[in-house]
Design brief:
The structure is a single chain. By secondary structure, this protein is of the alpha/beta class. It has four domains: 67 residues, DNA Methylphosphotriester Repair Domain; 65 residues; 91 residues, no CATH class; 86 residues, Arc Repressor Mutant, subunit A. The protein contains 15 helices and ten strands. It has a four-stranded mixed β-sheet. A hairpin with a 4-residue loop joins β1 and β2. α12 packs across α14 and α13 packs across α14. The radius of gyration is 21 Å and the shape is globular. InterPro entries: Ada-like_dom_sf, Ada_DNA_repair_Zn-bd, Bifunct_regulatory_prot_Ada, Homeodomain-like_sf, HTH_AraC, MethylDNA_cys_MeTrfase_AS, MethylDNA_cys_MeTrfase_DNA-bd, MethylDNA_cys_MeTrfase_DNAb. Its cofactor is Zn(2+). Keywords: Activator, DNA damage, DNA repair, Methyltransferase, Transcription, Transcription regulation, Transferase. It comes from Tritonibacter scottomollicae. It catalyses: a 4-O-methyl-thymidine in DNA + L-cysteinyl-[protein] = a thymidine in DNA + S-methyl-L-cysteinyl-[protein]; a 6-O-methyl-2'-deoxyguanosine in DNA + L-cysteinyl-[protein] = S-methyl-L-cysteinyl-[protein] + a 2'-deoxyguanosine in DNA.
């Protein structure tokens, strides 16, 4: 059962006191460890500035935190439902496996029943939880120094034909409607945080987004409207350059992007996007701070809208903007990815200092 969370100070006091009144009603994610716990967890208490509070375990997972092995917040949230506990045990045994509904059926579990139970208990389905866990495992592998290929546990596409079919479904265009002589060409880039869709002409990168971003179809439609000449499939040198730079970035070796970018927006939006690129890797800003840096104090809402209109993820680092209180705010690729990107850059900044 969800309820409106009180302010962070109240919840932090409850955490220090291990107040059982909040057990199952609030959870804490600790940014310094990447772990989320029940407020009654016996582990040593984190600093206030490292705490983020959530109403459900699902919200913690979506923000990129993994469950604590001391207080077992997922098991506690499962209650007495044997089916939920069984699936959680199965996920724990195979965290890197790409679970499907057929796998649930093989375990004798009705997929629709599991979907409702997990939504009710965790705010997300079992398959969504499994996918987030798989991506988290991939990031952990990369952070531990394993090869990038070992971290790509959820590339999203197995072949060019699979990408073409998935992309066509995503943007609502039949595969046959894509032009061979198009000026804009689309391809995908595998990353440890999931596949990214890249759209480029021969000279510039026009779009770079995570493939599961809900706004992607709308962004592609807007791009086609601004850039006539059709859309096709292919991999110009610009996408190869972007892929190479992203590989260095995710491996924690460099945060410099020289790929030429096309800005499709108003003059003000372009100004905001350039300011985002001026924020050093490893640092963050609030919307208000960014507005002041632009010489436009009081325009934080307009800056936030421009931030959200960005169609080139990571390279135009809108993930470096936080709420006024330093907490993670909306990110089209998911808050868990925003957290991971900030961690990558902080680690990179620390090693290069």
């Amino acid at each position: 059962m969800m309820f409106d969370l009180p302010d962070s100070e109240t919840l932090y006091a409850a955490l220090l006191a291990r107040d059982a009144a909040y057990d199952g009603r609030a959870y804490v994610g600790v940014s310094s460890t990447g772990i989320f716990c029940r407020l009654t967890c016996p582990a040593r208490k984190p600093k206030f500035e490292n705490c983020q509070f959530f109403a459900t375990p699902g919200a913690c997972i979506e923000a990129g935190f993994r469950a604590c092995k001391r207080c077992h917040p997922l098991s506690a949230a499962a209650g007495n439902d044997p089916m939920v506990r069984r699936l959680l045990d199965a996920l724990e045994a195979r965290p890197s496996y790409r679970w499907r509904e057929e796998d649930l059926m093989a375990l004798g579990v009705d997929a629709s029943t599991a979907r409702r139970a997990f939504k009710r208990q965790f705010g997300m389905t079992f398959l969504e939880m499994a996918r987030q866990r798989r991506l988290r495992e991939g990031f952990t592998a990369l952070s531990a120094g394993e090869p990038v290929i070992a971290a790509q546990m959820d590339a999203g596409f197995d072949s060019p034909s699979a990408f073409r079919a998935a992309f066509a479904r995503l943007v609502g265009v039949a595969p046959g409607a894509f032009r061979k002589d198009a000026q804009l060409l689309a391809d995908w880039i595998d990353t440890p945080l999931g596949a990214m869709v890249a759209v480029a002409c021969r000279h510039k990168l026009h779009l770079l987004e995570f493939a599961d971003r809900k706004a992607l179809p709308r962004e592609v439609a807007k791009l086609q409207k601004r850039q006539p000449g059709g859309l096709g499939f292919g991999r110009p040198e610009v996408i190869d350059q972007a892929a190479a730079e992203l590989t260095e970035y995710y491996a924690g070796r460099a945060a410099r992007f020289d790929t030429p970018l096309a800005y499709h927006g108003t003059a003000f939006e372009a100004e905001v996007w350039r300011a985002l690129r001026d924020i050093p890797a490893g640092e963050t800003r609030s919307y208000g701070q960014l507005a002041k840096d632009l010489g436009r104090p009081g325009s934080s809402r307009a800056v936030a809208r421009a931030n959200g209109a960005n169609q080139i993820a990571v390279m135009i680092p809108c993930h470096r903007v936080l709420g006024a209180d330093g907490t993670l705010t909306g990110y089209g690729g998911g808050l868990w990815r925003k957290q991971r990107l900030i961690e990558i850059e902080r680690d990179l900044s620390a090693t290069s200092a």
